Amino acid sequence: MLRRTSLRRTRRASTLPVPADHAWAVVACGLAGSRWYVDAGPLVVRGLIDRLAGGAGRRWSVPDRPLLVRGDTVGFWRVWEVEDDPGSGTHRLVLVADLRSPGRVTLTTTVTAEGATACRVEQEVRLDPDGIVGAAYLLADLPARETVTELVHRRVVRDVLQGR
After folding, report:
1. Cβ atoms 92, 109 nearer than 8 A
2. What CA–CA distance (Å, rounded) separates 131 from 136?
């Protein structure tokens, strides 16, 4: 697993022995049921923290269709962008958190084909702070962001390998 961190970005990437289209169907699945972007432990905790801090800590339901589309709301995320071009071998899902935070939190998941039977799944959590409070939060949040990214990425890898 690749791990990279900067002040604003935390990334994880894994190469998996499954076709990219299979991984994408799991990553961007919009069917009802347990989904990594709603039910991963760290995201459930983050929603609870948001509610305790006076935020909505939303729990929007999954739209119950094969794939998410731009504009969907799931968990506490808004689907900002979906790039699904099977011919290119690259797929991308961009989620923006609807939480109380001094800045914008974005989770990008990219699936890239590596031959016919393997793919690379990469996730990046990015925090773009607002003002001085956001800058301070950026520093204070780094260890938590590292942990969240690690655990969420492990959940995605597990789900893709299990075909969920």
Report:
1. yes
2. 9
